Structures are given as C-alpha cells and as structure tokens.
# Entry
Amino acid sequence: MNPLTTIERRGMSAISTPGGKMLIVAADQRNGMKAAMKDAPGGAAAISKAELAEAKADLLRYLANNAPAILLDPEVALPGVVDDGVLARGTSLVVGLDASGFETVDGLRYTGLVPGVTAKTVRELGGDVAKMLWYTRPDRQDVTSRVADEMRSLIKECTDEGVLLIVELLTYQLEGETDEDYAAKFAGLVADGAKLAVECGAKVLKLQYPGSAEGCAAVTAAANGVPWAVLSAGVDHETFLGQVATAMAGGAGGAMAGRSLWKDSLSISPDLRRDYLTNRALPRLRELADVVDGANRP
# Structure
C-alpha cells in the first residue's frame, strides 16, 4: 500500500460520498462528447470548442453539481466553469491532465500531458485532485518500461506539489492479437496493470471492469490496499450498475461514470439538454450513489 499524505487524504475525502466511497462524474472527454453531440437530430458536422464548453457546463449545472466531484479537462472546460461560477461550492474538481489521443511506438500506446498543464497548475485551475491516463500492456511493460517511468515521475511531481493523483489505466488489444486471445487475457491485464501502477507509487486507481467477481477480487489483491474505482467505459447505465455492485463487493472503492450517465443527454438538441440531464441523468447518478454506498447493493 502507498500511504496518502495528510493533504492527499483531504483530496480523497473531497471526491468521496458521505459513506467514504469515490463517486466522480467523468466529463473530461473531448472527442467522445463531440461524437455524441453530432448524433443529435440536426447535429452539426463539426462541434465548435464553444459548443463543447457549453455542453460541459450544462453537465456540471444539472448533473455533476449533485455529485461529490466532477472530472474536467483544461483544454475546453477549465478554468471557465470555475471563473463563471458554474461549479458549485460543494462539488470538488478533478483536473484531467491527459491530452486527447495517443501515439503508437513499437506497437504500444503512449499518452501525453495537456501542453502547459502540470501538478502546480491543477491548483491554479481551481482543482482539488488530478487525473492522468496511461495505456498499459503489463505483459509487455514492467517497472523498467517507459510507461512506468512516466508514472513514477508524475506521481512524484504531484506528491511534491500536494496534489492527489488518480492513475487511470486502460488496457487494449495489440495489432495482430485475436479477439479470443485478448478476451482471455483481459482480466489479468487489468489486475497486472494495477500491480504495475502500485509498484510505481500510485495511490488511487481508476480501472476498467475486469469482467467478473473473481476478476474484481484479483484487482483488489493486486492493488495491495490502494483504492480503485471502476470506470464506465461507455456501457449503458443498467449494465454499469451491475458492474459497480460486483466491483464494490469485490473490494473496489467507488465509481467514475461518464457516458453511462450523460451520453443520451448530449445526443439531443441543446434546448432539451437541461430536461434530459435533470430527468434522466440525475436519477441515474442517484441510483449509482446508492450502489456505491451500499444502500442498493445485492
């Protein structure tokens, strides 16, 4: 286990429910949100930065201000929602540090930081906590790999700055790898990725659902006391509720939900967005909170 500093404990508390479980509305997506908005009837072929920023502000106004925390990006949403007073006093801000997309080197994926954004600027943007995404294939990457070096460096930078860093990991299918081979490896890749990140000093993890109760237990064992939250990965709300219930029973520490909450609220015209977020997305958030805190967990 990698212990939290005192200030990191404050950050952990800020992103957690009264029951002490992580619950974050993920809204740092850029390309994914644009794709959802293009699906709206009469949607534009290209979504402008201003239109995307307003959609993110609406997600905050009508949905995430009812959650412990929201995850936003510094390319589109920040610092606007803070400066404009959209972010509610009781909702904490997680700043996503990862730039959109990835590069591929020798068949492996690598992400980069948003230009100009550091652990220090997280505070300057009004953030309470930071988040960084790394793609991992722990069957080809170990503690001496480039991705491990990147993790160690940013974790140390954030710790030195007094900023809790959520380490998000995504495993992926390699070129030439069959669907069957990848599916057979998937749960192990999620668990081994968690183990690698913890060995690099990670203190909080955001991970894919490993597929089963046994997979969740294996992830919890690999995390070795480091709390992990399950991400929604674009599945529908009902499916995600079941995944979260299984993950929590298997030792997970919370959930971070994006498209499962709000995708259909963006795939409509902007004048209907408030109604959809209020009457569809918000009840989903409350159902998710009940599962996370155990009030509605089998």
Summary: The domain at 6-293 is CATH 3.20.20.70 (TIM Barrel). The chain is about 45% helix and 15% strand. The chain has a mean pLDDT of 94.
